[in-house]
Amino acid sequence: MTALGALTNSVDSSLSQLGSETFTVKKWPSLHFGGSGWKRYARRKPITYEEIKFVRESAQLPLAVSAENMFAPLTVAYGNEKSDPQFQLYGSDDNYGTNHNRDLSKGRMLTASDVQYGRDVTVLGQDIVDRVFKHGEDPIGKTIKMNDHNYFVIGVFERKGGGMGQSQDGFALIPVTNEIKYFIQPEYTSLQMTIRARSKKLFDETQDEIIGALRSVRGVKPGDDNDFEVENNTSLTIQFDSFSKYLSYAGFGISAIALLAASIGIMNIMLVSVTERTKEIGIRKALGATKADIAGQFLTEAVVLCEVGGVIGIGIGIGIGNILAVVIHASVYVPMMWVGIGLGVCSLVGIVFGLYPALKAANMHPIDALRFE
User: Fold this and answer.
1) For the whole model, what pTM was predicted?
2) Which of 77, 95, 144, 311 is the residue whose CA sits 20 to 30 A from 275?
3) pLDDT per residue as tens digits for the range 135-169
C-alpha cells in the first residue's frame, strides 16, 4: 500500500503538470485491462503527421496543437563523453513547450521553420547536459551525436525532476519531421497529438472540434466509433484508479493469506505458553486470582505480541515501499489509514486467536495445575 500510494501521488503530480486544459489523441489507449480490445486497436490506421497538420490548420479553438512521438533508447555523445542508451528522443514541433509547460533555461525553442525543413537541431533536457557536458561547458551552439546523427544544440530545458516513475529531464527534443526522416518508419508508427484549449470553459468545445476534424481527415463515417483514443487528466485518472483498485485487491488477498498463517502461529505460541506456565497459573489461582484475571493476563500477552509484530511489520513495509518510491522517483509516502487498519487488525487477531488459550488457562483447576510437571 505504501508503494501503491507513492505511485498514485507520482501519477497525480505528473497529470497536474500536464494541465487541466490539455488532452491527447492517440491510436492506443494509455491503459487497458483485458485482452479483448487489443485486436480492435491494432486494426486502426496510424495517426500521421499530415493528419495532425490538417487538424492544426483547420481547428480554430485550440491554443496549441502539436504532433509528438517518442523514440528510445537514445545514446548521446559529445567529445570524449558518450552515454549509455539511457535517454529518450522526442519528436515534436514549436508548440511542444506550450502544451507540456516546459520552459527553457537557455537558448531557444524549436520554430515552425525548423519543423518545416526538418532541421538537425535539438533542445536538451538537463540530464543529458549533465551527462555529456561534464566540465561546465555551455552546450548551446555545440554539435552532439545522437545515435548515428549529428545535431546542433539550440536550447536547454529547465530541470523538472521526477514523475511517472522516471526522470522528466532525460530526453532530447528534435523536429518531428526530422525524427520521421531518420528514426521511425511512418507507415508503421502512429504519432500522438497533444492539444491545449484556451481555457477550461472552452475545453469540451475544443475537444469536440478536434474529434470532428480528425474524423473528417481519417474518413470515419457518421455513426461509426472513433478510430482513435481521446485522453485527458480525468480519463487517465479514472483508468489508473481502476488499475490501482485491482492491485489493492491483490495486496489484500495476499495479506489475508499471510495473516491467517500468522494467526494460527500466534494461537500455537500462546497454547505452548499456557502449557509451560501451568504451575504459575496454579500458584496465582491458589493466591486468589480469578478466571477473569488469568484470561486477561494471557489475552493481553497475545494482543501485545501481535501489536509488537505489527509495528515491526508496518515499519518494514513503509521502509521497503518508500525504497521503491525512491527508485521510481516518487515522493516519500506513509499510508496513515492503512497503518491504523494494520494496528487494528493486529489487535483483533490477538483477541480472536488468543481467546482460546486464555480461556484454557482460566479454566484450569488450581490443584491439577500445581501438580503439573
Assistant:
1) 0.66
2) 311
3) 889 999 999 999 989 999 999 999 987 655 567 89
What pLDDT was estimated at residue 239?
64
Kindly give, in sequence order, each residue whose CB lies less than 8 Å from that of residue 301, ignoring residues fewer than 6 positions away.
270, 273, 354
Looking at this protein, which amino acid is placed at residue 310? G
Question: In the chain, at which residue ranges do the beta strands (DSSP E only) sit?
Answer: 22-26, 64-74, 76-78, 81-82, 87-92, 104-107, 121-124, 143-146, 149-157, 162-163, 166-167, 171-175, 192-196, 229-232
CA distance from start to end of the chain: 48
Residue 325: which residues within 8 A CB-CB, separation 6 or more?
2, 3, 6, 7, 10, 331, 332, 333
52: left (phi over 0), alpha (psi -120 to 50) or beta: alpha
Residue recorded with cell 500462546: 270
CA–CA separation, 121 vs 279, rounded Å? 86
In this prediction, residue 106 carries a pLDDT of 95
3-state helix/strand/coil string of 142-175: CEEEECCEEEEEEEEECCCCEECCEECCCEEEEE
Ramachandran assignment for 23, one of left (phi > 0), alpha (psi -120 to 50 degrees), beta (any other): beta
